[in-house]
Please model this.
Amino acid sequence: MTLTPDLLIQNVKPVTDTKKGGKKVDLRIRGGKIDSVGDGLKPEPNEEVYDAEGAYVSPGWFDMHVHLREPGQEHKETIRSGCEAAAFGGFTEVACMPNTDPAIHTRDVVEYIKKQSSELPVEVYPIGAVTRERKGESLTEMSDMKEGGAVAFSDDGDPVWNSQMMRLALEYSAMLGVPVINHEEDLDLSRPGHMHEGEISARLGLDGTPAIAEEVMIARDILLAEFTGGHIHVAHISTAGAVDLVRKAKSDGIRVTTEVCPHHFDLTDAEVHARGFDTNVKMHPPLRTEEDVEAMIKGLKDGTIDAICTDHAPHAEEEKEVEFIYAPNGIIGLETAWSISVMRLLQPGHLELNQLIDKLAFQPRKILGLNLPEIKEGEPANLTLFNTDESWKFDEREVRSKSKNSPWLGQELTGRAVAIYNKGRFVENRLRN
Ligand SMILES: [Zn+2]
Model:
């Protein structure tokens, strides 16, 4: 990735959490910072020029829930390939989960990830494990990891099932000013579920993961957050009951936030049958029902659901090409999050453009207590350029991730992130087909 410190971006429409994108402007970037925002800026010598042709521009998007697989499972994804997928999807920054090998459970691993990503245009923020080796038995050195660059704590991949560990983690999180993110699943209720427990799982004769397995754990965490004063962030929310619990807790003033993945507001458990047990519709939490999808959209609209994340979870082809019950959970999502959000939330009018950008660029940083990038003179240029109407086909050649486990592969999508600018680097996302 080449350095592009001096660049003139012409004809972009700025969007923020409150502005929907008005008239076109030009952005001059010098040394990686926004030098000027104006109308009809003329190219200067030694300056690269990019005509955005009316694309929108917003502060760079932030995906607060990705699995980059490095260290330990580089055949699925590396920090580099994951960041290429992120850039293609319009994300300038990501926060990566600790279920690597070794887990992100010491400051050394946190610093290794920061170092591996330092030259890339996408900024990577490690999320440290709550417990050593994510086993749920003893706490990690949270404050040491925070000093090394960890922005939150989670045992994601697995829940923090031990209530005493969660209590202690929330107490520390309150002191450190960072959230604890929990994969909300009561394993005794959910195992050995392969899909959502309901009519369809019963018909197919598959063991299901009931909604209550997620809701019981969220209820516990809300109580512990209230008790400790800590901040619980509910990972990848997926059931109507879970949204109700978070809505109620928020109205009670408890420090709880949550996120939703595009697959949970786009697809239902009917896909397992319709697609003939395609392992690319197997994930945790599983695809739920139409009623749950509606609850996700309602939660996004009324602000109960703060952010959109992908839970980008790459798995190699040979790992997913097995019988449904043996396949690992998870799908890639960085490349398609924007299009699915446009098609399911923006086009039907559930969210306005600025509300969608709020959930992709502003809320994740607010939850993690990070600075909000601004499109303003003197600020570092951290930008996503995107449209809402371009049709494109997400075929295999467009996958930037090392893995191809996506339920949207081969589909015609609408809306695309055409470029990002971050850390002094401009990345244009040209289609390959
Ligand atoms: Zn998870």
About this structure: DSSP finds 14 helices and 18 strands in the chain. The mean pLDDT is 97. The domain at 60-368 is CATH 3.20.20.140 (TIM Barrel).
